[in-house]
Amino acid sequence: MTAVSAVLRAPLATRANALHAGAWWLWALGLATAASRTTNPLLLALLVAVAGYVVAARRTDAPWARAFGFYLALGAFVVVLRVVFAVALGSPIGGTTLLVTLPEVPLPDWAAGVRIGGRVMAEGVVFAALDGLRLATLLVCLGAANALANPARLLKSLPGALYEIGVAVVVAMTFAPQLVTDVLRMRAARRLRGRRDRGARSFLEVARPVLEGALERSVALAAAMDARGYGRTADVPPAVRRATGALTLGGLVGVCAGSYGLLAAEGAVYGLPLLVAGVAAALGGLLLGGRRTVRTRYRPDRWGVRAWLVAGSGAVVAAVMAYAAGADAAALNPPAVPLTAPRLPVLPAVGVLVGLLPALVAPRPAVGVTGR
Q1: Which of 31, 95, 106, 351 could hold 141 in an S-S bridge, CB 3.0 to 4.6 Å?
Q2: What residue ranges in the chain does DSSP mark as E strands?
Q3: Residue 264, φ and ψ in degrees, nearest 5
Q4: Is 37 in contact with 325 (CB distance < 8 Å)?
Q5: Which value, in Å, is the radius of gyration of the alpha carbons in the chain?
Q6: Residue 199 and residue 182: Cα distance in Å, rounded?
Q7: What whole-number distance in Å separates Cα of residue 280 and Cα of residue 100?
Q8: DSSP string, 192-211
Q9: Which residue has the higher pLDDT, 313 or 118?
Q10: Which of 151, 148, 212 is nearest to 186 (CA)?
Q11: Can you tell me the distance from the alpha carbon of 31 to that of 235, in angstroms, rounded to the nearest whole number?
Q12: Do 252 and 282 meet the contact criterion of CB atoms below 8 Å apart?
């Protein structure tokens, strides 16, 4: 009991005991996988609440940690946009509950099956809202990883074969946090000058300098990485290069074929073996490809017990949701026709709550720690 309580009693975060960035991404990918398996609004809202609580409990005051609110706003925009498209262009499902009849634009014969305006059914609007909510939850889960994981520390932990790609990804990932930071800075400056910081006019006046500043900082980061020798490659024999390409390409084909077999009803027999073989071949290609990269790691991040607990909690959420999708598919994907109130299934809800474990075991951020 003493060892268990010591693990659950999270210490203050320092550079030495900082949680591995990959653990945060595996946790977030587990939540995102669970979100992709359901359209139940109660479960999706629970996933968003779990991700938001963990971010609020364990994020630092670094620039990228402030991007979570941006992802929440982006998710809300996705839901609204999906509903607007369903109202304006129609829904692929039918319905019997008429909400409103919009003026319909006549279209030529070659556009058969497409309409603009017309009758708006409640079932179609609900179906579009649930579909948009699922996509919004996926964005929020990935935004949680972006707010909790240090992009530079994640780059340091990547395999050598993916290092060049990782540099480009990190440069791209710094754009959104810097964008949020510049927006907050510009709004504070406008308030100090007695100007409005809300509304369409204020947005137009702030948008251009904010975009320019975020883009300039990302480009400056790329230039600094290039000046320090990032991307240098070593000479490897041609046979190793050919073997690396064959293993990587064959592994990706195996992963795609195995994933399709698992998703298809008649391919479950060969899907899992192909997926395992593809993953093994891709890992072999990554190990051989790492010989091309000449670099060392200064103070590499450790993958300890807390990292296993954080990553495992995300895997448990995904596994429980996948099991529930086969055992009680109607509860995870409530039908829109006819309209019925969704119910909260107990097993998936308990599985989602396991995703709160990082708020207990991950190191607690100290006041003033930026995570750099």
Answers
A1: 31
A2: 98-105, 116-121
A3: -80, 145
A4: yes
A5: 24
A6: 17
A7: 55
A8: HTT---SSHHHHHHHHHHHH
A9: 313
A10: 212
A11: 41
A12: yes
Q: How is residue 254 written in tokens? A: 């195996």
Alpha-carbon torsion (189, 190, 192, 197), positive or negative: negative
Question: Distance between CA 60 and CA 70 in Å, rounded?
Answer: 16
* Predicted confidence band of residue 367 (pLDDT cuts 50, 70, 90): low
| C-alpha to C-alpha distance for 357 and 54, rounded to whole angstroms | 8
Cβ atoms of 172 and 141 within 8 Å: the answer is no
- Whole-number Å distance between alpha carbons of 141 and 154: 17
Could you write out the DSSP letters of every residue in 269-290? HHHHHHHHHHHHHHHHHHHHHG
Measured CA to CA in angstroms, residue 2 lies from 5, 6, 8, 281, 304 at distances of 5, 6, 10, 42, 18
pTM of the full structure: 0.71
Rounded to an integer, what is the distance from CA 140 to the centroid of its chain?
A: 7
- Report DSSP letters for 51-105, one per residue: HHHHHHHH--SSGGGGGHHHHHHHHHHHHHHHHHHHHHH--SS--S-EEEEEEEE
In degrees and rounded to multiples of 5, residue 65 shows phi and psi of -70, -15
What number of other Cβ atoms are within 10 A of residue 277's Cβ? 16
The per-residue pLDDT for range 245-285, each reduced to its tens digit, is: 777 778 878 878 877 766 555 555 666 677 788 888 877 77
Residues 6+ apart with CB under 8 A from 313: 27, 30, 354, 355, 356, 357, 358
Which pLDDT tens digit goes with each residue over 91-120? 777 777 778 877 877 777 776 666 777 788
Distances (CA, A) of 265 to 259, 261, 270, 275, 278: 12, 8, 11, 16, 20
How many whole angstroms separate alpha carbon 264 and alpha carbon 107?
37
What backbone phi and psi angles, to 5 degrees, belong to 191? -65, -40
d(CA 364, CA 22): 17
Q: Helix, strand or coil for residue 364?
A: strand
DSSP class per residue in 152-219: HHHHHTS-GGGHHHHHHHHHHHTHHHHHHHHHHHHHHHHHHTT---SSHHHHHHHHHHHHHHHHHHHH
What is the 8-class DSSP label of residue 12?
B
Whether the pLDDT of residue 334 is over 70: the answer is: yes
